[in-house]
Amino acid sequence: MELLFEKSRKGRGCDLLPPLDVPPAHLMEGMGREAPLDLPELSEVELSRHYSALERRAHGVNNGFYPLGSCTMKYNPRLHEELAALPGFAGVHPSQDPADVQGCLKVLRLAEELLCEITGMDAMTFQPAAGAHGELTALLMVKKYHLDRGDAGRTKILAPDSAHGTNPASAAMCGFTVVNVPSNPQGGVDLEALRAAAGPDTAALMLTNPNTLGLFDPNILEITQIVHDAGGLCYYDGANLNAVMGVVRPGDMGFDLVHLNLHKTFSTPHGGGGPGSGPVGCKDFLRDYLPAGYVEEGPRGLELRDPEKTIGRVKAFCGNFTVVVKALAYLLTLGAEGIPQAAQGAVLNANYLREQLRGTYDIAYGEGPCMHEFVLTLEKLKKETGVSALDVAKALIDQGIHPPTMYFPLIVEEALMFEPTETESRETLDHAAAVLKAIRAQADTDPAALHAAPVTTPIGRPDEVQAARHPVLRYRPPEVQP
Question: Is the CB of residue 8 less than 8 Å from the CB of residue 46?
Answer without folding.
Answer: no
